[in-house]
Amino acid sequence: MAGQAKKKFAILGVASLVLVAMVVAVTLGTQNSDTDNYNHQEVSDSQKAIQTICEPTDYKETCIKTLQAEAGNSTDPKELIQAAFKVTTNYINEAAKNSTVLQELQKDPRTKLALENCKELAHQAVEDLERSFAKFQTFDFSNIDDMLADIKVWLSGALTYQQTCLDGFEGAEGDAGEKMRQSLETSMELTSNGLAMINDISSVLTSLELPAFTNRRLLSDDILGHGMDILPSWIDEGRRRLLRAKPSKVKPDLIVAKDGSGNFTTINEALLNITKNEEKRFVLYIKEGVYEEKVTFHKNLLHLTVIGDGPTKTRITGKLNFIDGVPTYHTATVAVLGDFFIARDIGFENAAGPEKHQAVAVRVGADKTIFYNCHFDGFQDTLYAHTYRQFYRNCKISGTIDFVFGDSAAVLQNCTLEVRKPLDNQQCIVTAQGRKDARQPTGLVLQNCSFVADPAYFPYRFQLKSYLGRPWKEFSRTIIMESFIDDLIQPEGWLAWNGSFALDTLFYAEFNNRGPSSNKMLRAQWNGVKELPSSRVERFLAAKFIDGNHWVKSAHIPYNSGFIYPPPQEDPSVKYSPVAPEETKDLGSDRSKEAFYFRQPAATDNADIGSASIAAPPLTSYGLPPALSPVAAPAPAPIPTPTRKRRSGSRLRRLIAKIW
């Protein structure tokens, strides 16, 4: 029994550390920026723990002051989390209230709509924080890698929603946009800090090489690799067969048909009759026809599969656009917000035309979404891959300017990027990825895709120039691999957004591509444009970048987890780009692991393992609770030497491995 108690306490100790760290992620706290009265005298154990937790963050003062103000002297993870969520909810609700007050004072219609969007986006950010909290309530150490991956993606989503609120003030009058920026400044800093802490914890646990942290994933990958069926919770075998069947053979739950041969004649009517928050997959079949509707698949429509008769036969179309006064966010003909969404054999369109500027065909803000054999047609901003993890296979996306954009972690395989004829004073850009923070696990990966001109644009392709992409935000990340790049793309490949903005911090890479414009000799020579060997490209493959083996492969649609073609061997004559900190910042770094192990300790007595309390134990010089440290020293230890670091880290790994 004593051994079981020790093991239980060890698990609880790590869980406590992770829970406390998450306070940083979920706290959208006060905006007091006065640091002159910061007390640098001896602090309590709780404050030392907070300082340790805040160490790897970019906004340390914000991190420390917020937690000290809200958590008091508590070391109980439960109390810390409760305090964090209370201030989070209050802060976001206050921001939403402020946007309402500002909205009532505005006369400019575009500003009013932007403020209305901010209320909606604030609510979505809070939902991401709440589901991160719920994930911790069902803490399972054997599944901690998936848990941390989910939290990274959701925190990234929360940060993106706040930024989207600010983006909505483009073209708006007055100072409302600046007031909202000030209102969201601290919350965005704290969300960034949360990503820093989760990345730090993730990298440490990975470095420990715990069987519970590594073997489960390896076992799962091995089973999937040998063709054995693993049924994820979000798709049952009966529904999965629908993805392999021809549309005419599908037996759906509801049918939409314009000719009256189904259950409903419009898509929106059908959506009102779908069970909300369903745990089983629900199949909606939309028969051939052109449906002129603005459709939103809301967040409570989970596990929904939508199947059409083909992307040129089943079409959903609209014309909302920026020039006519609609914010880009709400120009989408179709918005997908419910997680585990699958669409197959459907065409989506915004037919506003190039003169109407931003006009989105589809906006995707749902996690683990799949689009198979779909068309996305528009001009500027066609596909808004907004947030979370997304997979596109055998799809066609057409447009003129930034027609694949957003801040999701999206993989497009075997897709066609078809450039259309723009206005005579415009040039075409395929991608505009919008990663704001280097720790966000997001980016666009285009694998075995084709970059081509549509027939109307083809004669003008040398006159009206086209580019692979440009940086919408500071840490924009796009990887194009194993793809065909036709002669419409300019030799420079990439286009600047505005002067030197983001040219040093973006991350663009091309790998093993083919076609007339695949030659990189004349590519843009920015610091952010990388030359990578296959070993550094592997992390952007679907199996790793979006964890596709655990949710895409199980859907039984065509899918490649790794390279499609044999990658070229590393060439000694090629000058590969050095590894910059930004390249792996979303994964954590060795340096951050060392810092995590060897921070200044809190001088406290060891906790009693027989106690029923679940209060967080004090942190030791290893940055871990005493139950997980090689030695639970009662007094601070000096900063170890590098030799000591390696030896102690090894001891720590062996101890935890023995516990497991």
From TrEMBL:
This is Pectinesterase. The keyword Transport does not apply. It is an enzyme of class 3 (hydrolase). In the C-terminal section; belongs to the pectinesterase family. In the N-terminal section; belongs to the PMEI family. It is found in: Secreted, Cell wall. InterPro entries: Invertase/methylesterase_inhib, Pectin_lyas_fold, Pectin_lyase_fold/virulence, Pectinesterase_Asp_AS, Pectinesterase_cat, Pectinesterase_inhib_dom. Pathway: Glycan metabolism; pectin degradation; 2-dehydro-3-deoxy-D-gluconate from pectin: step 1/5. Acts in the modification of cell walls via demethylesterification of cell wall pectin. The gene is LOC113729647. Its EC number is 3.1.1.11. Keywords: Aspartyl esterase, Cell wall, Cell wall biogenesis/degradation, Disulfide bond, Glycoprotein, Hydrolase, Secreted, Signal. It comes from Coffea arabica. It catalyses: [(1->4)-alpha-D-galacturonosyl methyl ester](n) + n H2O = [(1->4)-alpha-D-galacturonosyl](n) + n methanol + n H(+). GO terms for biological process: cell wall modification; pectin catabolic process. It holds the Pfam family PMEI. GO terms for molecular function: enzyme inhibitor activity; pectinesterase activity. Residues 1-25 form the signal peptide. Residues 45-197 form the Pectinesterase inhibitor domain. NCBIfam families: PME_inhib. The active site is at 402.
